[in-house]
Structures are given as C-alpha cells and as structure tokens.
C-alpha cells in the first residue's frame, strides 16, 4: 500500500482514484443521465432540444401530488414516531439489568433483517385475515375478516408506517444508546443533586446532549423511508401509490413516453434527499465538535 | 439512582421492555409458522396441520430457491470483495491525510448512503442498455457497489483515523518491501475493520431489491426478488421458508459481531440501508 517515494498529494490521488471513479461514474453518472432524460435531452439518441414537458405533465397530474403527500406523510410520521420510541428504548436499555445481553441481542436482531421480510411479516400480522384479525375473532370482537380495520393497503399507509417503526426503532436506538453511554450519567447526577426533577433532567440536560445524534440518524431514516420501493409495494394501496412505486410504474410502462416522467420523479426524490444530506452534514459535524 | 426506584416504576420498566422486545420479534413469528403450515386459514390461530412441505420445496433442485440462494451469495460476495479492494485505499486516504477538497470528497462518498437507489438507478438503467449490462449478473454487482462501497470507505476511514503509520516506516527502514510491509504490518492492524466492514457490506448488498429488480430485469433473480414474488402470489408457506433462509446470514453475522456493534463505530450506519 505504501507507494514508494511519491509525494503525499500523488499518494492521496492514487488511493482515492478507484473509489471516486466508481462513485462518480455510477452514482453521479446515474443522477446526471436521469436529470438529462427528465428534460428530454439525450444527444446520443438524437434528443438535442431540452424541454420541460415531463415536469409539466408530472406537476399537473393530481396523482403525483397525492403520491408526494402520501410519501411525505409516510416518511415524516415514521421518522417522528421511531425517533421518540427509540429514545424511550435507549433510556430503558442504558442501565444494567439481569439478562441484558440477551435483551440487547433481541433489540439488535431486526437491524439485520431486511425491510422486505419485515413488510411481509407485517402483512401476515395486520391484514384482514392476519394474526391480529384472528385474535380479534377469537375474542369475539369481529365476525368476519372485513370487520377488521384496514391496516394494510389502506389510504393512511398505517401498515407501511408500522413496518418502518418496527425496523427503525433499533437503528436509531443503537445510535442513541451509544451516544448516551459516551456522555455518561455525570451531567444528569449534577442536575439531580441541584434539585432538578427526573423530567427536567431529561428535558434540559440529556435531550440537548443526544439531540444532534438523534437528528442525524432521523435524517437517514427520513431519506430512506421517502425513497424505498419494496415496502410500499408490498403493504401500500394501489392509488395513490408511494412516489418510488409510481416512478417505477411509469418507468416500466409499455408507453416509453412515460419514462422522462419517471426520471422527473426520481429527480424530485434526489432533491429531497439532497436537503436531507444538508441537515445530516450540519448536525453530524456539530456532533463531532460537541 | 436505580436503588431508589419504586416498585411501580420498576414494573413499568419491565413491562415496557417486554412489550418492546415482543414487538421487535413479532413480525418474524407468523413467517416462521407459515413455513411449517399447511392451509392455515382464517380464523385458526395456529395451523391445523404442520408439514415440512414448504421446506422440502425450497430445498428441492427444481424449485430454483437454491439456485437463487447461490446466486445471491455470489453477487453479495463479489460486491463485498470489490468494495474492500477499492474501499480500503480510499479509507486510508480519508482517515490518514488532510488535504484540500477533502470535505467535498467526503460529501461525494456520503451522498450515495443517503440518496435512495431509485433516484439513480433509472438513469443507470438507460445507459446500461447500450453497454449490454442490463439483465446481467455483472451489471447487478456493479450497481450494488453504489450502496456497499461508500459504506466500506466510511468504515475504513474510521479505522485508519486511529492507525499509526510509524510501524510501516520502521518495517520499511528495516528493509521490508512495500508488499511485505502491507502484508505483515498494515493488514494485521486493519483486519478487524475489514472483517466487520466487509460483513456489513455483504448484508447491504444481500438486502438490495430495487437495484437488482431494474438492472437484473427480472432475469437475475436474487433471493429478495423470489421472496417478493412468492409473497405477492400468496404462497405464504413457501414465502415463510424463503424468508427464514433469507434472514439467516444476518443473524449469523450479528452473533459474530455483536461486540463490535456500538453505535459509535461507523458500522452501524450501514443498517440504514438493510
């Protein structure tokens, strides 16, 4: 790895070259091509006049707005609920107790379980003939499957949100827990000895300390839940569908003219994640400095 | 503090803890039961007949589940090895040196870990057509590098930030060749990082769905694609069996690496993408 007598600058360049090549070509190249095609601009295949027609048809389509709002609702609600519950879970797990090892293992278990498996599990739990509907029937609460509330394929995306909350509590929780452990309990002890209540200690001492960590984890969760395909594809309603599902449908439409519209939607998703990257960098830097 | 805790408070803690853990394990239970069930209809709480049929089907040579398993292992291994080969040098540059434009390089490597795959894969798909990479295993391995490589670079840059290059200089001054220095000095020091980073890069590739679906065009049928198809076709028993097979590597990797899994290590960030 040590490259002879090269200067540091050359060394850094050579070390970074292969990775940057792959990222620039595949990731940024993919984004650029998507951007160009969304403007109907592709000189290689003879499209030399960029236009806004794809964006016009996307932004004048009611389905797009419904889909955007639904996706935003899914991402926002899932992120807020998982963050709050993850902080609660971290508070619960930070102390030592009997059986902590096994509890920690179970807590981390679903970190490695892909979202797709979680989504199928949710389907089997919450559909109208699923485990909870069967339990409700057992206790005489419903007579028929259709009496059970629609929690999957529903307009409020409850099943999707349940899946994300299931999956993201441990993700944010593990990060917050590590945050709490590196902060220690000294600050809280001082606040308590100065007469602060438990709630005040949490609200004014611990929460501000862990907040940057929570926020940078939440930003990753928001971006993921906004752009994920397979979870809304399994658990979501047909109309309106989540934005990634809609983009995929447009892209694979038999009518090739719909492809630029799919690209335009992909660009909307990319722009939203660019905003998320801005927040992530801002708060993860602050976390490092703090 | 904990000694002063009242009994109701303590019971509340235990109760919420039990609810939390139950909730986290719960979705896997019907999946596991389905894999041993035969005609488990509403409103039966448990299957009337238990059977190994779904497992026999999944393990048979004709069903294609095993082919799909080997294919998925192969793709994830290839993506992991490539990510290690390319990611370790880049991690060294970012972890050990300060240079102009470093923040921009870091931002460019961070971006693919946050921007969803669907946002870039449509563009890639339209270029891969002309390169003949669509519907090929190589095309799929290449797009898997988008989530796995940045992740490997971030983990390795964390490892190299705490790495002392003085040992390399000593080995060199004692006459070791660059290759020997790397093999006997550098590699042993960074090996734990490579192993943990590599295992999680493997899992990140293992869990990819939309990238494989689009670039593989349905021809490259990895385990998650098969799982999705059986789930949407309503074959719950076979879905259950494939689902159990599919989560196994993750659980094994968790068992192997539990002690490395503190949220402080860069390794945890990768779980955002699994």
β-strand number of chain B: 2
- Write down the CATH topology of the largest domain in chain A: MetI-like fold
Task: Return the string of H and E elements of chain B.
Answer: HHEEHHHHHHHHHH
Q: Which structural class best describes the helix and strand composition of chain B? A: mainly alpha
Total strands of chain A: the figure is 0
Cα gyration radius of chain A (Å): 24 Å
Please tell me what the overall shape of chain B is: globular
- Whole-number average pLDDT of chain B? 92
Q: For the record, what CATH class of chain B applies?
A: Mainly Alpha
- End-to-end Cα distance of chain B, whole Å, is 37 Å
The CATH topology of chain B is given as MetI-like fold
Overall mean pLDDT score of chain A?
Answer: 92
Find the biggest chain interface.
Answer: A-B, 112 and 101 residues
- In the predicted model, the low-confidence regions of chain A spanning at least 5 consecutive residues are none
User: Any idea what the radius of gyration of chain B is?
Assistant: 23 Å
The oligomeric status of these chains comes to: heterodimer
CATH architecture of the largest domain in chain A: Orthogonal Bundle
């Amino acid at each position: 790895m040590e490259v002879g007598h090269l200067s540091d600058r050359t060394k850094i360049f050579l070390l970074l070259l292969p990775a940057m090549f792959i990222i620039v070509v595949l990731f940024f190249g993919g984004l650029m091509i998507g951007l160009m095609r969304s403007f109907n601009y592709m000189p290689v295949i003879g499209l030399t006049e960029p236009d806004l027609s794809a964006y016009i048809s996307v932004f004048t389509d009611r389905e797009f707005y419904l889909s955007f709002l639904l996706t935003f609702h899914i991402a926002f609600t899932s992120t807020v609920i998982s963050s709050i519950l993850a902080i609660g879970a971290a508070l619960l797990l930070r102390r030592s107790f009997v059986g902590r090892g096994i509890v920690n293992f179970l807590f981390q278990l679903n970190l490695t379980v892909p979202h797709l498996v979680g989504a199928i599990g949710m389907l089997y739990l919450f559909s109208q003939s699923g485990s909870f509907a069967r339990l409700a029937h057992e206790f005489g609460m419903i007579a028929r499957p259709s009496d059970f509330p629609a929690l999957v394929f529903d307009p409020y995306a409850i099943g999707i949100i349940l899946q994300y909350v299931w999956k993201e509590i441990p993700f944010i929780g593990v990060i917050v827990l590590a945050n709490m452990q590196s902060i220690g309990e000294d600050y809280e002890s001082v606040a308590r000895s100065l007469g602060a209540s438990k709630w005040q200690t949490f609200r004014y001492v611990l929460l501000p300390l862990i907040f940057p960590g929570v926020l940078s984890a939440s930003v990753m969760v928001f971006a993921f839940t906004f752009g994920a395909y397979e979870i809304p594809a399994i658990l979501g309603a047909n109309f309106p569908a989540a934005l990634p599902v809609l983009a995929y449908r447009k892209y694979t439409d038999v009518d090739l003219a719909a492809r630029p519209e799919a690209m335009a939607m992909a660009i909307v998703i990319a722009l939203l994640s660019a905003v998320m990257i801005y927040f992530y960098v801002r708060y993860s830097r602050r976390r490092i400095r703090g | 503090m904990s000694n002063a805790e009242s009994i109701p408070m303590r019971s509340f803690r235990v109760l919420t803890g039990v609810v939390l853990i139950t909730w986290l394990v719960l979705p896997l239970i019907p999946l596991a039961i389905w894999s041993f069930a035969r005609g488990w209809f509403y409103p039966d709480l448990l299957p009337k007949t238990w059977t190994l049929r779904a497992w026999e089907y999944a393990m048979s040579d004709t069903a294609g589940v095993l082919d799909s398993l080997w294919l998925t292992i192969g793709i994830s291994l290839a993506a992991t090895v490539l990510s290690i080969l390319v990611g370790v040098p880049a991690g060294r540059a970012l972890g050990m040196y300060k240079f102009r434009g470093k923040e921009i390089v870091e931002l460019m490597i961070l971006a693919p870990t946050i921007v969803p795959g669907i946002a870039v894969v449509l563009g890639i798909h339209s270029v891969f057509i002309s390169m003949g990479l669509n519907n090929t295993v190589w095309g799929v391995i290449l797009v898997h590098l988008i989530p796995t490589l940045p992740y490997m670079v971030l983990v390795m840059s964390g490892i190299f930030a705490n790495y002392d290059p003085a040992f390399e200089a000593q080995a060199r001054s004692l006459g070791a060749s660059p290759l020997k220095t790397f093999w006997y000095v550098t590699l042993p020091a960074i090996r734990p990082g490579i192993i943990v980073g590599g295992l999680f890069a493997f899992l990140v590739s293992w869990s990819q769905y939309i990238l494989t679906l689009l670039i593989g065009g349905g021809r490259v049928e990895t385990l998650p694609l098969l799982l999705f198809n059986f789930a949407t076709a309503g074959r719950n028993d076979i879905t259950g069996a494939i689902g159990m097979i599919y989560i196994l590597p993750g659980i094994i990797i968790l068992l192997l690496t539990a002690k490395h899994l503190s949220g402080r290590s860069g390794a945890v960030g990768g779980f955002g993408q699994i």
